[in-house]
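Before the break, one more example. Copy the sequence into your notebook; we will annotate it together after we see the structure.
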Amino acid sequence: MIRCKNLTKIYRAGGTETVALDNISFEIKTGEFVSIIGPSGSGKSTLMHILGILDTPDSGEYFLDGQEVSKLNDNQLSDLRRKKIGFVFQSFNLLPRSTVLGNVMLPLLYSKISQKERIARAKECLKYAGMDENKLKNLSNQLSGGQMQRVAIARALINNPSVILADEPTGNLDTKTSYIVMEALRKLNKNGRTVILITHETDIADYANRIIHIRDGKIEKDGPNIPHDHIIN
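Here is what the structure looks like once it is written out:
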């Protein structure tokens, strides 16, 4: 599914160079649930942007589903991102004055799918994400943090992507709600989707089957995970 080879990313400002990623390589197979964990400034956010085709490395190769991303033009990159990747962000990124249903349908705005089909697909995704069907006409700014994240997960599913990329998805949530959201992501993984989680929290990283530790732009450790007590398999 994903293959990264010798990825390097350097930020330059005012004559100063900051190495965000330092020649890192790894693979993620279809159906894996992987946490990428590291402290602030470790390079994990930069890596997330590259994996999500939101940024490009200065050198190295990134293959997504067999396609070398660096060889694609802007339109091909946008198409690949839309079809293959669903994003879940810490800040939810919902439109505050749009309804729950409207937010989930947003990625289908320019598709050729009928309005009836868009609504049906959005409702199905919201149900899958565990969203209360009585909230579908609510504005997103009327929801709790956990409900907003469920809407964000449903929106990430709307194009049926093969990869879910979750960037600190529990960062704005309390502990109990965080675990509920993580169970929703684990459910997606158990049903065949590849899930990549970016986090700095060890208890959240524990939901994954594999953990990649990153520090100072380098992979420190990469291996299978043995969940702790709060994780029920």
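The radius of gyration is 18 Å. The beta strands are 2-13, 16-28, 33-37, 59-64, 67-68, 85-89, 163-167, 194-199, 210-215, 218-224. Try to locate both features in your own notes.
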